[in-house]
Amino acid sequence: MHIPDGFLDAKTWLSTAALSAGALSYGLTQANRELEDRQIPVMGAMGAFVFAAQMVNFPVAGGTSGHLLGGALLALTMGPWPACIIMATIVGLQALFFNDGGVTVLGANIFNMAVLAPLSGYWVYRLLNRVIANRPVKIFLAAWFSTMAAAAATALELAFSNTIALKLVLPAMLGWHSLIGIGEGLITAGVISYLTSIKGGLFLSIGRKAGESNV
After folding, report:
1. Which of 17, 117, 138, 184 is deepest in the core (most CB within 10 A)?
2. Band of the pLDDT at 130, cuts 50, 70, 90?
3. What are residue 152's phi and psi, to 5 degrees?
4. Can you give the pLDDT at residue 50?
5. Is 109:63 a contact under the CB 8 Å cutoff?
6. Shortest CA distance to 188 belongs to which of 146, 122, 139?
7. What is the rounded distance in angstroms from the CA atom of residue 201 to the CA atom of residue 215?
8. Residue 24 CA from chain centroid, whole number
9. What's the pLDDT tens digit per position in 78-103?
10. Would you call 64 helix, strand, or coil by DSSP?
């Protein structure tokens, strides 16, 4: 999922950098409003968990790699905009200190993994509230979709940059990440179920923000 340096042309990494900067600027304002004091320690712990999970990756296609994302997990436990800030911090640290994803394409990697993944997972979860009552199923589907959305965006950016043909990179990215998304969904549902069992009040407050009527 992390795009290395040199794989995107200037128009693509500049435009995604602008989108990411705008989203994170808005997200910082929203996060200050949404976060409660008791969530700050959990925010650090969840960020560390996702950081460690993302370090385990493997090649997929066109120089990219696949791994667990954690965007939906953070969005459903911390809220969508705090999740964007945490994820952007993780992606930035990985690029600067672990050579995981390029520096010039950092805006694109942040857009895919720190903006699109948590926001899409969060909004899919909200939409599913209208048709599915089972919370683990909703969480699983939201996490799976967030993985696919980020993978599709990565493929499109590589294709727009003429790095690899869309007909090659899109099926490869979506195919692999449809499988990775299953693991993402199972882990996300499992972690949130565990957090709910030990810190029910924490998740219940997020559930209300996510539009649940039964919390």
Report:
1. 117
2. confident
3. -65, -40
4. 83
5. no
6. 139
7. 10
8. 13
9. 889 999 999 999 999 989 988 888 89
10. coil
